[in-house]
Amino acid sequence: LDSPSKTMSIKERLALLKKSGEEDWKNRLIRKQEYGKATGGLHTQEVEQSLKKKRVTESRESQMTIEERKHLITVREEAWKTKGRGAANDSTQFTVAGRMVKKGLASPTSITPISSPLCSKSRGTTPVSKPLEDIEARPDMQLESDLKLDRLETFLRRLNNKVAGIQETVLTVTGKSVKEVMKLDDDETFAKFYRSVDHSIPRSPVELEEDFDVIFDPYAPKLTSSVAEHKRQVRPKRRVQASKNPLKLLAARDDLLQEYTEQRLNVAFMESKRMKVEKMSSNSNFSEVTLAGLASRENFSNINLRSVNLMEQNSNNSAMPYKKLMLLQIKGRRHVQTRLVEPRASSLNSGDCFLLLSPQYCFLWVGEFSNVIEKAKASELATLIQTKRELGCRATYIQTIEEGINTHTHAAKDFWKLLGGQTSYQSAGDPKEDELYETAIIETNCVYRLTDDKLVPDDDYWGKIPKCSLLQSKEVLVFDFGSEVYVWHGKEVTLAQRKIAFQLAKHLWNGTFDYENCDINPLDPGECNPLIPRKGQGRPDWAIFGRVTEHNETILFKEKFLDWTELKRPTEKNSGEVVQQKDDPRADVKPYDVTRMVATPQITAGTILDGVNVGRGYGLVEGDDRRQFEIATVSVDVWHILEFDYSRLPRQSIGQFHEGDAYVVKWKYMASTAVGSRQKGEHLVRVAGKEKCVYFFWQGRHSTVSEKGTSALMTVELDEERGAQVQVLQGKEPPCFLQCFQGGMVVHSGRREEEEENVQSEWRLYCVRGEVPMEGNLLEVACHCSSLRSRTSMVVLNINKALIYLWHGCKAQGHTKEVGRTAANKIKEECPLEAGLHSSSNVTIHECDEGSEPLGFWDALGRRDRKAYDCMLQDPGSFNFAPRLFILSSSSGDFSATEFVYPAQAPSAVSSMPFLQEDLYSAPQPALFLVDNHHEVYLWQGWWPTENKITGSARIRWASDRKSAMETVLQYCRGKNLKRPPPKSYLIHAGLEPLTFTNMFPSWEHREDIAEITEMDTEVSNQITLVEDVLAKLCKTIYPLADLLARPLPEGVDPLKLEIYLTDEDFEFALDMSRDEFNALPTWKQVNLKKSKGLF
C-alpha cells in the first residue's frame, strides 16, 4: 500500500506506459537475440545472413518500377514448370494448348497461364443496349396470340358457364318457424303462490361514548410504549348493501327476446345421399370416383379419334420451346454456355462440343481440341436429354462422334445428313477464347419484366447471367438470348397477363435486334454465316421462340442460369459401390432354375366378372364362400366395328369373325344358386338368380389400331347395364367367350366389308381348335397341302357344291375329332354368308382320316404332297402331350423364364396346338423362346430389327442372354425325366424355322424379310444345329490374334475384353508388354493402348 506507484498521478502513469511501449520492446528483442546467440551458435549466424539478404532484396524491390515488378511476378509464376523432373509435361502435353502445339496449330509461346478475360477485354465494350422505351401494346401494333392460351381461355369460359348452371351441394334452409320462450314468473304471480311471513324484530341502537380501554378490565396490561402512538382507531363496520334478486333483474331487462326463429336445413337429405353412395361403393370393387364416372353418360359417337398414321402428334402449344432439328454449342471454361446455333456443318469447330438433336437421333460431336469441362458438360446434357426425353428427342441411345476417330461410321453419315451434308468447318481458336466467349455472350443477355402490361428491362440482370431468385410465382419474364427467346410465367399469373406477355414477346421477336456494340453476335457466334447481320429485323427460322411455365422449364432454358440445382450430378457413391460397378455385369446373369419349369402348372381356366369367377361360362361354379352356382346363357348379341361406327349383326352371322376386324359381343347370363347335395342320389335344386351381362370387345390380329380403340369406346357406349367389359385378343379367347357360340365360332381371313377380295377360290380350309365341343372354333388357313397338321382335324369347304370334307390327322385326339364334327354340323345348320353359303344350301359332310383321303380332297388342295407338311403316318411315337412355351429374358435384371398359358386349356384334355405364330413374332425382338415338344426341345432365336441401331452394350447383353438361355435349355432337357435319356435340343432362327417346328402351330406364314435379316446378321443355315454344339463355341476361351483383329468378331467374344482370349505369347506380341504389366496400368491407359493396337 505504501509503494511509489500508488502515489503516482495519472499523468505520470500515462508517460510511463508510453515509454514502455516505445523503448522496452527493443530491450526485450536484444535480450532474445543475445539468448539466441548463446544457444544457437552457427545456426543463428546463418539465419542473420539470410535475413540480411532478404532485407537487401526487399530494399531493391522497393526501388523497382511497376513494370519490373509485373515482370518479376510473371517469371515466378513460370518457375514451377522448371522445378523437378518432367515438371513441364502436363502443360505441354495434356492441355488444349499443348495438343494444338503438337499439331502445329499454335506456337509454343502460347502455352502460358490463362489470364482473366476481363483484363484483356477492351474497356470500351458495353452490354447490349437497352430499348429507348418500354414495349407496350398500342392500337397500331399487330399482336399475335398463342393457340394454347386461346383454347385454355375458351375451355375456362365453357367450364364457368357449365358450373354456373349446376346446383351446388351446399347447406340450404328448407323451412322456417317462430318459437316462443316461456316467460319468467313476475312478483304478482310469485306472491299469489307463496304466503309472505313478516319476521320483524325490534332493535335499539347501541351508543358508546367511552374508550375501549375503559370497557376492558382495568387491571389488564396496557400498551404504554412509543408504539402506542401509532395505534389505529378501530371503528365499527358500515352496513353492506344486500344483493338483489337475480330473477327480478333478469325480468327487468328489455333486450331479451321472448321468441326465436327456427330454421330447418338439408343436412338430413345430404347425409342420406352420402349413406347411399357409401353403401353402393361398399358392395363394389370400384372407388367412388370410378362409380361416379360409370354413372355419367357420355356420347362417344361425337368423339374424333386421332389418326395413328401420323408420326408426330400435334400440340396445342404454338410456341414450343424447341425445334425439330437443333444444334447446341457447348463452349466455355468456368460457367460453360449452351447456346443454340444454326444447324449446318459450317457452325461446327474443332475446339468445342456440339449436340445435334432430332425426334429420332441424339448425336454428341466432340471436337478434337475441346477442353475437359466442355466434354463433361456435353456428355451430361446428352444423357439428361436422352433419358428424360427432353426437347422433343425420343432417341433410344446417344451416338458419340469424336473428331478424327470415328468420323466415317454409319452414325457419322446420319449426322452429316441431318446437317445438310459434310462441308468444311472452322478450326479451333486460341486456348484463351473460351473464357472470352463466356464473358462476351453473357453480355448479350436481355431480361424483361412485365409491369403494368409493359415489358420493362430488368436493370439488375441486363447483360448478366440470370439467377434462380429472379423466377417468382407471380412474375412474368421475357428472356432474350439472341437465338432463343423465352416467355416465362409463374404458376400464380393470371391468364390475361400470360396472353399480353406472349403478345408483347412476339412483337419483340419480330422486331429489330442490335448487337453492334457487343463483342459477339449470339445469332452467329462463330461468324460463319455472312447472311446473319449484327443488326436486323426478325430472327432466323431455326431460332426458338418458346413459352415455358414454372416447374416445366426445358433443360436448354435451365442451362442459362448460374445456380440451377437440378442440373447437378447425383452424389457419388462410396468406393465399395464403385468397385462393384467395375465388375463384369455378365457375372450376375445365371441360368434359370429349371426345377421351377419342369413341373406342369395346374391352372383352372376361369374368368372373373364383377368379382365372381364364372369358370368356363356354363355348368356348376363354386364361389369364394364354397356355395355352388349354375351359369346359363340367356342371350348373345354381336356388333361389327367399323372405322368410327358400328352395326349389329343378324342372328345367322353370330359367331362369324374376321381377323382384320373388331367386334363387340354382349353375353347375357344367369347365375342360379344350387341348393342340395349330390350324395345318395339327391338332385340339386336351382333357385333362379339375377340376370347379368358382360361385354367382350374382340380384336382380330390384323385389325387396325383405330378399330381397336373404337371397339373399346363402343363397348362403353353400348354398355347400358353397366356390366363388366373384357378385352379379347384373337387366339387368346377365354372359355366363357367361346361357349357363347356353342362350337360354331369361325375366324375368317380378311375383312368383312371386303368379301369379294376374301373369296379367291371355291375351296376354303379351316383348322380345328379347342378341346371341348361347345368351345370349339375354326381358324381359316391357306388352302394348300402345307397347312395340314397331323395332330388336329381340318375342315375343307367347297362353297359352290356346299361340300365339306372333315379330315382327321393320324395323331389327332378323340376330343379334337369331336370338336371338328360339332363345328362342321354348325356350318351345315347355319349356312353362314361369311363362309360363302346361302340359307338354302344343302351341305354334305364327308369324314375321312389321314392316309385314306378321297380324290376330291386332294383336288381341293391342288395336289397330293405329304412332304409339304410334317406327316406323322410313319411315326410310331405317342403324341398324348401338350406343347409348352417359355420366354427367356433378363430384362427384369435376373435371367428368368416365363411360361405362356393357353386360356381355354381344359383340365382333362390334351391341347395339341395351344399357341400361335404371333406369340413369337410379336414379342420385343430379339427374343429367346424355349419350345418343349416333348420328343425334342427348341430354342427359338429372334432377329435384330433394322430400324433399331445396335450398340456394343446391347450386343454384349444379347450374347450373355444367349449363353444363359442355352445353358437353361440343356438343364431343362436333363431335368424333364431323370430316368430317361434327355431329349435333343435344337437352335433355330427366326425366318428359317424347320418344318417340324412350324407344324406345331395351327398356321405359319413364312417371312422373307426376317429371313434376310437373319441370314445377314448371323452365320446360320437351314440345317438344324444342336444347342450343345453352339454353346461349346460360345465357351471357347482362346482365339488366335488374327481372329480377334478381324471384323466381325467371333461369336460369343466380349469386345471390351479381347485381351483375355489371347495366349501369353500373342498378348506380349500384340501389346508389347506382359499381362502383369498391363494389369498394373490404370483403366484409361489400358483402353487407349487397346485402341491403338486394334483390340477394342
TrEMBL record:
Compositionally biased spans, kind Basic and acidic residues: 45-63
InterPro entries per UniProt: ADF-H/Gelsolin-like_dom_sf (IPR029006), Gelsolin-like_dom (IPR007123), Villin/Gelsolin (IPR007122), Villin_headpiece (IPR003128), Villin_headpiece_dom_sf (IPR036886)
Keywords recorded for this protein, A-Z: Actin-binding, Calcium, Cell junction, Cell membrane, Cell projection, Cytoplasm, Cytoskeleton, Membrane, Methylation, Phosphoprotein, Repeat
One of the protein's GO biological processes: cytoskeleton organization
Pfam short name (any one): Gelsolin
Subcellular location(s) per record: Cell membrane; Cell projection, Invadopodium; Cell projection, Podosome; Cleavage furrow
Stretches assigned to the HP domain: 1033-1096
Gene3D superfamilies: Severin, Villin headpiece domain
Segments of this protein annotated with the region Disordered: 43-63
Principal location listed in the UniProt entry: membrane
Superkingdom field: Eukaryota
GO molecular function: actin filament binding
GO cellular component, as recorded: cell projection; cleavage furrow; costamere; midbody; nucleus; podosome
Membrane topology: Peripheral membrane protein
PROSITE patterns linked: HP (PS51089)
Subunit structure: Associates with F-actin. Interacts with NEB. Interacts with MYH9. Interacts with MYLK. Interacts with TASOR.
Annotated function: Forms a high-affinity link between the actin cytoskeleton and the membrane. Is among the first costameric proteins to assemble during myogenesis and it contributes to myogenic membrane structure and differentiation. Appears to be involved in myosin II assembly. May modulate myosin II regulation through MLCK during cell spreading, an initial step in cell migration. May play a role in invadopodial function. May be involved in modulation of focal adhesions. Supervillin-mediated down-regulation of focal adhesions involves binding to TRIP6. Plays a role in cytokinesis through KIF14 interaction.
Family indicated by similarity: Belongs to the villin/gelsolin family.
Protein name, UniProt field: Supervillin
Lineage: Eukaryota, Metazoa, Chordata, Craniata, Vertebrata
